[in-house]
Write a structure and sequence with these properties.
With about 210 residues, the chain is of the alpha+beta class. It has helices at about 1-15, 20-25, 30-35, 65, 90-95, 195-205, and strands spanning about 45, 55, 70, 75-80, 85, 95-100, 110-120, 125-135, 150-155, 160-165, 170-175, 180-190.
């Protein structure tokens, strides 16, 4: 099941990339009908001016970010660069994202779950709860495999709600609860692990030819 999920995710990611061959993009409509969740146009937002949703009162936990009660648009999903992100209530898998804190791409991506998606003015924001790190007593077995993007985390989310922007997102991630206290987080990043391995080898040994 995991292999099938990863293959489907890689296919969707490849079709969304700008360097995807035109002939494969012609088949994208067919692949979308097979693999993508059926979503009405009114549930997907991403381009300002195309919304048909009416503003609603903001939830209480967003008042601190909005400086008090306010009417905002709260879509269930948002499409960004061809990828759909959802609230945890709508689709748990699409709500699991890794993001760069404050948009700093020099830092390590942090896993989190999207609780709210909302639009204030012309900007779309995601309100997230970070996944808590595992306690220090736990030895992470995946630390021995630097090219396999998995890591042990706590199965609990931080109670603190944070705002992030769509451009801060690194990728989706898969989560496997191995116990009541701990989960495995597997990054579904856009960069092929094999490419990273080959790049590291060629950096270390300039004369080597892998392909």
């Amino acid at each position: 099941m995991l292999q099938s999920f990863l293959r489907a995710a890689k296919l969707r990611r490849w079709l969304a990339k700008p360097d995807c061959p035109p002939v494969m993009k012609e088949c994208k409509a067919l692949f979308d009908k097979i693999y993508l969740t059926k979503v009405s146009d009114s549930d997907i937002s991403g381009t300002i001016g195309e919304d048909t949703m009416e503003p609603v009162p903001a939830p209480v936990d967003l008042h601190a970010f909005l400086k008090g009660p306010k009417q905002i648009i709260m879509p269930a999903r948002v499409r960004h660069n061809g990828i759909i992100y959802s609230t945890a209530k709508t689709h748990k898998g699409n709500s699991l994202v890794q993001f760069y804190p404050r948009g700093n791409r020099d830092s390590s991506p942090i896993p989190a779950s999207i609780k709210h998606i909302y639009r204030d003015g012309k900007k779309t924001y995601l309100a997230i709860h970070r996944q808590l790190p595992a306690d220090n007593a736990i030895i992470d077995p995946f630390a021995l495999y630097p090219y396999f993007p998995a890591k042990i985390y706590s199965s609990q989310l931080s109670p603190t709600l944070e705002l992030i922007q769509l451009d801060w997102i690194f990728s989706h991630y898969a989560q496997w609860n191995i116990s009541t206290d701990h989960s495995v987080v597997l990054s579904l990043n856009r960069v092929c692990v094999c490419h990273l391995c080959s790049r590291n080898l060629t950096d270390k040994y300039p004369g080597i030819k892998l392909f």
